[in-house]
């Protein structure tokens, strides 16, 4: 959510792709002082998850508001307003939802951020599971899906970015019911993820890391898959998986490229 807010506010760090531009790191440096004093087994003051000083302010605000009883939806709106973001941002659920990763070999199960950040997603995985604790789809998210003309599934990791949303009860049924106006953008280009470990995670879990593999994941809930021109030769395999294939440049290296992709997605649904 924060990455979306910072991006729309024009404040994102363009090199890292997360956090704020022009950050300082004094809070993290100060926490490092306590590393040698921390008792065994304690996670207090850990600095492997790096938060810049200004980014940390967002987390302090959110934590305090949630402790006061604010809902995730309310707090998301407040943070968006503070950054001058004029669109509605809706968390997928008001409950506590965790993604858990089972590491191959050891069988150890770790929270997703441990796998992604602490372990630098550099270890093979055996499975992905979700600790939902009775989570339901946010009513505001259900309303947004119901009332929207087009649903676009962004080119993010289908297993651990889109997968958690789909794991909520009723989401797949909701999307399948309006499948003709659901468009997905492949996160895999030329057999590789543009960013992150999506291709490796797919391969490790037995999912073909190609646009055809992505199509098989999304066919139950989306009619159209938008793929990059690099993968034009696989259009037939996408269609064999049950999806219409639209070929267009999908790598968003500039705002103009992103705008063109958005136009292509909307046109594909209409």
Characteristics of this structure?
Helicase, Ruva Protein, domain 3, 9 strands, 3-stranded antiparallel sheet, Rossmann fold, 13% strand
What's the helix and strand layout?
Layout: H1 2-8, H2 26-32, H3 53-67, H4 72-82, E1 98-103, E2 109-111, H5 112-118, E3 125-131, H6 139-147, E4 151-153, H7 163-167, H8 171-176, E5 182-185, E6 188-189, E7 192-193, H9 198-204, H10 211-218, E8 224-227, H11 235-240, E9 244-247, H12 255-269
Parallel strand pairs: 4-5, 5-8, 8-9
Antiparallel strand pairs: 1-2, 1-3, 6-7
Helix pairs in contact: 3-4
Instruction: State the helix count.
Output: 12
Q: What is the architecture of the largest domain at the second tier of CATH? A: 3-Layer(aba) Sandwich
The first-level CATH class name of the largest domain: Alpha Beta
Strand content: 5-15%
What would your notes on this structure say?
The protein has 270 residues and is α/β, with parallel strands linked by helices. It is built from 12 helices and 9 strands. The protein has helices spanning 2-8, 26-32, 53-67, 72-82, 112-118, 139-147, 163-167, 171-176, 198-204, 211-218, 235-240, 255-269; strands at residues 98-103, 109-111, 125-131, 151-153, 182-185, 188-189, 192-193, 224-227, 244-247. The chain is globular and about 60 Å long. The two termini are 28 Å apart. The mean pLDDT is 95.
